[in-house]
Design a protein that fits this description.
This protein is mainly alpha-helical. Helices cover 53% and strands 6% of the residues. Strand 3, helix 6 and strand 4 (184-186) form a beta-alpha-beta unit. It is elongated.
């Protein structure tokens, strides 16, 4: 048909279609460009709680097709939520919440929740869902990765399962639907956690209950890494069904992650929902892995079971496992309240907890100290600002040594992660005498009861990038002014010069660690060579 003879309404439809295709393609190209510019350095540990996507990209999408799709989909979503809540309210009338639903109640909730969940997924653009594999029919616990509330909605639609969710997620418009599905609610501050664990065990082992779905990460991520799993889903010692959720086009299309960084430092759930509704289609891939059956050892150690399942899901998603944890999100939120960048507070908390027994209250305290020391508010501490930590002159050799040990990246500044790692090393529960004793044992490489000039020099070279013989002799003469450096002499010196205790204690920890410390690997290798040569010379 010749276009000039085409009716006006048909020309409008064709024009809108062409415009939509061109607009969609332009938005995708802008997203690819933004992703390329914002990619983290190669080899760096990914930050799973930040979205680096350009803000304007999503705002343009609200114009078209969002101006048309968002109102229709919002009305549809709200209507379905109200219908599901009404069904949940009716189903719960006169029902004992400690027993599974049966008969008409179960049929009502099963039918209504399936229809409502599938409808809500469609309103969010998730109607192109690709499923790989099948769920095991006897799986009573389902676990998966977590980027937003959409994985939970899918599991309700596909399995009519009950979810373990934070108590604050019990919003008024959905609370009756959650009650009808017999959700298990967890209080973030630990209130009633023992009761929650017992409830999970009960439902995983007693017949009649729907499957329990959990997201062991405990928070949402951007899908760049799989963070540390909590053990709650694995305490029952029963087989679990691992599920891997992917959003294939999230690199060049709408990102469904509920994380920091999009539309400002923090993205609320409403922001995530609106940007999903502004897209014609949001693909989702659901991969069911083989049923994970715990071994005898894994039943005794639930964290071992959790780690195996985590590795299996990460392998399917082709992403790394990191030691980030839910506490990183709490720290990031605290950083925002103090007008710091949330990305600066993501420190891989699980790793620091494992290495240094760092607790969340301690980490928050360090964050407050860091903010007070960061006088220019750039999220980094320079030598001048670091001098305030220890009360040392800015041009002093001891400060240079401390700064060199703390500065993992070997730059001119220290970020919060380096700061908290260094403070965690020296701010443990050891007393002054215990620290002095450990330092002496470490510095006395030959274990002859006296620290020699060569042994002190060997240890100092571990901390200083460039250490001269003059500097070593100067410090040795100061410590040995009252005689050979025995434990008593070293302890008295450190009592009078407490700032040196920070440096010596850091060097002690670094010397004891085989890897994963703060100082560069080549400096640690050089230290080991000097130590071996020194001991060999003393033996001869």
């Amino acid at each position: 048909m010749d276009l000039p003879n085409t009716p006006t309404w048909a020309q409008c439809i064709i024009g809108i279609g062409v415009f939509s295709v061109l607009w969609e393609r332009w938005c995708q190209l802008k997203a690819v460009e933004a992703e390329r510019k914002s990619t983290e350095p190669k080899g760096a540990t990914p930050n799973p709680f930040m979205s680096l996507r350009a803000v304007n990209y999503y705002r343009w999408r609200y114009i078209w097709p969002g101006i048309f799709l968002i109102p229709l989909r919002l009305v549809g979503t709200i209507s379905l939520l109200i219908a599901a809540s009404m069904a949940g309210y009716i189903a719960c009338l006169g029902h004992d919440k400690n027993k599974p639903m049966k008969g008409v109640r179960k049929f009502l909730m099963s039918t209504c929740s399936t229809v409502a969940a599938r409808g809500i997924l469609a309103c969010l653009g998730f109607y192109n869902i690709k499923v790989k594999g099948k769920a095991h029919p006897n799986a009573h616990v389902i676990v998966g990765n977590h980027r937003g509330p959409f994985e939970g909605i899918y599991l309700v639609a596909a399995h009519n399962c009950c979810l373990v969710s934070a108590a604050e997620n019990r919003f008024p418009i959905v609370k009756h639907a959650m009650d009808g599905l017999q959700f298990i609610f967890v209080h973030r501050k630990g209130k009633g956690r023992g009761e929650v664990i017992e409830t999970i065990k009960k439902r995983a082992t007693e017949p009649g209950w729907p499957a329990v779905a959990m997201f062991p990460e405990g928070t949402t991520t951007n899908g760049k890494a799989l963070i540390k799993f909590k053990k709650g889903a694995f305490l029952a010692g029963v087989p679990v069904q691992p599920v891997a959720f992917e959003f294939p086009n999230s690199e060049v299309d709408i990102d469904p992650s509920w994380v920091f960084g999009v539309h400002g430092p923090s993205s609320g759930l409403a922001t995530v929902v609106l940007r999903l509704m502004s897209s014609w289609s949001n693909p989702m891939t659901v991969s069911y892995l083989p049923l994970a059956v715990p071994s005898e050892a894994e039943i005794k150690d639930p964290m071992m079971f959790a780690e195996r399942v985590r590795r299996d899901i990460a392998k399917t998603l082709k992403i790394p496992c990191t030691e980030h944890a839910q506490e990183d999100v709490i720290l990031a939120a605290s950083a925002m309240k103090q007008n710091l960048s949330p990305s600066d507070a993501v420190v891989e908390f699980g790793k620091l907890n494992r290495l240094f027994n760092l607790t969340l209250p301690d980490a928050k305290d360090y964050l407050e100290k860091f903010k007070n020391l960061d006088t220019n508010g750039d999220g980094e501490l320079d030598v001048r600002e670091a001098a305030r930590i220890f009360g040392l002159p800015e041009d002093g050799e001891i400060l240079k040594g401390l700064f060199s040990v703390l500065n993992e990246r070997q730059t001119d500044t220290i970020n919060f992660k380096e700061f908290v790692m260094g403070m965690a090393k020296v701010s443990n529960s050891l007393s002054f005498d215990e620290k002095c004793s450990l330092c002496f044992e470490t510095f006395d490489l030959s274990h002859d009861g006296v620290i020699s000039r060569e042994e002190l020099g060997c240890m100092l070279r571990l901390g200083f990038s460039e250490t001269t013989e003059e500097q070593i002799n100067s410090l040795f003469d100061r410590i040995a002014s009252s005689g050979p450096i025995t434990f008593t002499v070293l302890r008295e010196f450190l009592r009078e010069n407490t700032s040196y205790l920070y440096l010596f204690d850091l060097l002690r920890v670094e010397a004891e660690e085989s890897g994963g410390g703060l100082v560069p690997a080549e400096r640690k290798t050089s230290f080991v060579r000097h130590k071996e040569a020194l001991l060999k010379a003393e033996e001869e």
